[in-house]
Amino acid sequence: MSTTSIGDLAQSFMLRNRNTALKQEMARLTTELSTGQVADTREVLGGNYSYLTEIERKLETLTGYDVATTEANHMASAMQSALERVESLGTDLSLSLIAAGTSAVGTSKSVVAADARNAMAALVGTMNSNIAGRSMFSGTATDRAPLPDDSTLLDALKTAITGAGATTPTDIMAAATNWFNDPAGFAATAYQGSAAALAPMTLSETESVTLDIRATDPDLKTMLRLTAVAALAEDPALALSEPEQTELFEMTGQQMLAGRDGLTSLRAAVGFAESRIEQVSSRNAAEETSLDYAKANLLASDPYDAATKLEEVQFQLQSLYSVTVRMSQLSLVNFL
Prior knowledge:
InterPro entries: Flagellin_C. This is Flagellar hook-associated protein 3 FlgL. Keywords: Cell projection, Cilium, Flagellum. With about 325 residues, this protein is an all-alpha fold. The chain has two domains: about 55-290, CATH 1.20.1330.10; about 305-335. About 70% of the residues lie in helices and about 0% in strands. It has twelve helices and four strands, in the order ααααββαααββααααα. The protein has helices at about 10-35, 40-45, 50-100, 110-125, 150-165, 170-180, 185-190, 220-230, 240-260, 260-300, 305-330, 330-335, and strands at about 130, 135, 200, 210. It has a two-stranded antiparallel ribbon. A two-stranded antiparallel ribbon has the order 3-4. Helix 3 (about 50-100) runs parallel beside helix 8 and helix 8 runs antiparallel to helix 9 (about 240-260).
């Protein structure tokens, strides 16, 4: 009867190799048990990574859209706040102007004119506001404010009015309207933004939203024009008598009050955009959750099976250590 044996060195290598293999297997099973996912993705997928790759690609795309929807939401919210401020300034000023123009014991004309100048400064400041360094009402020229300071704007309008030879409240209103509507007037000499509209913001593969409101919007120009005319009512260059100032205040106040509808429409358009952004953001979040769940199921490990195998490996490793200890105690003296 023949027997097969291995030498001491080969036996030592065999035990070390077995020890390493069991430790690696135990580390793998421990990782699967703690993470809930398989360690060997290739074995689970059978070498077919197409489905997993598609899931991961979609998750990366949704991460990008999440940044886009957050940016769009911040822009829309800031734009809505600015338009609310513009409307509030117009409402308050219009009531003061109407009171000054209709009441025999109304507010002092100089006080109302001062209020109009303050409102003009606040109005320009609001329209020049930005979000994260991007001007909201400058079109594609987001790197600069759409309007000069209020003093520069008032000086430009005053030059246009006096240059037109306007001497009555009606003539002044007409001259101001012409300057703001003339392409060679306000748009060319005062507006500092771009004539190009902002590109739509992409929110998903099929959805986008446009937030294109510039300082040249007719409703915003109307508010600027009426506030500026009221601020210039007492200016010596216009040489208006007190009754004419009163008439000008009433005209600007009435038109400003009527112009609220246009601002309300602008705010409604931005509000609709905010609603769409919120809806798309919710859909993207739901899709991302669904894909995360699909990926987890695809790579999920059975915790009970992993625990059972881990216990088996631990037992095998303990047995190997026991055998190694016994073999280390063998000697020729004990054998004899």
